Amino acid sequence: MSVFLILTFLFAVGSMIGWGIEVIYRRFVSQKHWVNPGFLTGPCLPLYGMSLCILYLLTGIENHIPANALWLRKLILFLLMAIAITCLEYVIGVVSLKYTKVRLWDYTDQWGNIQGMICPLYSFFWMVLSAIYYFLVHPHILDALAWLARNQAFSFGIGFFYGIFVIDLAYSAQLIMKIKQFAQEHEIEVRLEEFREDIYQHISEHQKPKFLLSLHTGQPLQQMLEKYHELHFSADMMMEEMKEKLEQIEQFRRR
Known about the structure:
Layout: H1 3-30, H2 46-59, H3 70-100, E1 102-103, H4 120-150, H5 156-186, E2 190-191, H6 192-204, H7 221-254
Parallel strand pairs: 1-2
Helix pairs in contact: 1-2, 2-3, 3-4, 5-7
């Protein structure tokens, strides 16, 4: 089976499994309610899809790692996996923020973070997930690839996934472009998860929030963005102005 077909299969599987992991994590750990993560509408997180491709490829270099002890070789492998995925996370985060003015995730409050895009804690989580992949998932991935190689007629399922993925990507890109335009006009960055949580809280006051169409409120997107700006950035601007005035007063007293 060609490398292209293998990677497209892994991307599809990883995107959907990663989406499921995030949904469960947000429901029971972070936000305590059902949240559709990411910027797409459907059950797909491309970051996890690309990460699974990276894990699969890096697993192949294990025997080339210059370490005699088996445990040390595996530890180095898991460390390399974590570094690779952390770099991927950083690149995606920076590109999104630079070109769309949308911050897909925010680790600003985490120790040792770099631009709020990556941090040691989540790199450690990537390392743990890499070990879980190696011991529990990779053998099944190999079995699935072997089965697919024998039954390539079923690869139409991969094509079906990408058909839906492209439609979803085009639809979600339109929303992101509207958010980008608003962010540029107001010279801000929109923190996607924070914006989605505001929408959730707003809808919860009147009706049951939508899971898939989580950025839809029944109101124009522009109106919700205005509320988001007023709630999070107007207060920040007032605080900055107050700090400047207090500093001016303090300087005047010293004179």
